[in-house]
Amino acid sequence: MHEIERHRVILSEVEARPIVTVAHLTDVLGASEATVRRDIGFLDKEGKLRRVRGGAEAINPPSDVSLLGRPYSVSQTINTDVKRCIAKAAVDLLSDNMSIMISGGTTTSAMSEYMRGLKLQVLTNSFSIADQLIKKSKCSVTVPSGKIHREQNIILSPFPNDISNHTYADILFIGAYGVNSHGVMETDPQIVQAVMKLINRANQRVLLVDSTKFQNRSSMIICPLSQIDIVITDDGIDNKSKEVIESAGCRLIIVEKQKQ
């Protein structure tokens, strides 16, 4: 990522939450710690943010704090072709008149492109998926009540009871920040809570992750892999991760990366 673009993303992050850590920015930018610290130092001297121990804060801290993790607009630009291949494989599991739930994320959002010819009942907390399906499909679309988090393009309810408690589907599709032997991981407790509401509300649970997600780590666990029925990923997955998935009893679907 170019220096100017890194600076734009850093400023966007500090404007979205009170304090951002170097570790968080390293993950968001895909840059080294040294590079992030150098960028923070430069922006601090420019008076665009305030350098603090272990990270940075906004000059005027936000009153409305956004979710942890990469902004949707940044994630959308990473491994785009691979995510589309994974999404297409997920839609291949569907047929008319099925009821499905889709949790928000850039990989799951790519499913909407391939759902245009299907007639489905869809519950999703993704503002992007709902918007695309309403405009360009024959699907019946339901969204939960809650707050729209612009940075993540997702609708989350602060209340324990919403429409997801009264819904049961044939298949639930979810994405994740990371996957390993401990289970399926996310970065923000609100996202974990939202997915956990859905995890037992479907006959099958399908996880959509590109192979880079097997390198990511987080302390926030959504569920163990044993609760997932199908994992769809790309052929960049390593043998150790394959063994972890298969030993958990999951069916593994591997898509081939598109040749450039």
Give a description of the structure.
With 260 residues, the protein is α/β, with parallel strands linked by helices. It has two domains: 63 residues, Winged helix-like DNA-binding domain superfamily/Winged helix DNA-binding domain (Arc Repressor Mutant, subunit A, Orthogonal Bundle), CATH 1.10.10.10; 181 residues, 3-Layer(aba) Sandwich (Rossmann fold), CATH 3.40.50. It has nine helices and 15 strands. 37% of the residues are buried. The model has no long low-confidence stretch (mean pLDDT 87).
- Could you tell me the CATH topology label of the largest domain: Rossmann fold
Helical content stands at: 25-40%
Q: Helix-strand pattern, N to C? A: HEHHEEHHEHEHEEEEEEHEEEHE
CATH class of the largest domain: Alpha Beta
Helix-and-strand structural type: alpha/beta
Shape assignment: globular
CATH architectural name of the largest domain: 3-Layer(aba) Sandwich
List the domain count as a whole number: 2
Query: Could you tell me the radius of gyration in angstroms?
Result: 19 Å
Which strand order do you get reading across the main beta sheet?
6-5-4-9-12-14-15
How many beta strands in the DSSP annotation?
A: 15
Strand portion, in percent? Answer: 15-25%
Residue-averaged pLDDT: 87
**Number of separate helices:** 9
Spans with pLDDT under 50 lasting ≥5 residues?
Answer: none
Distance between the termini: 20 Å
What characterizes the major β-sheet? Answer: 7 strands, parallel
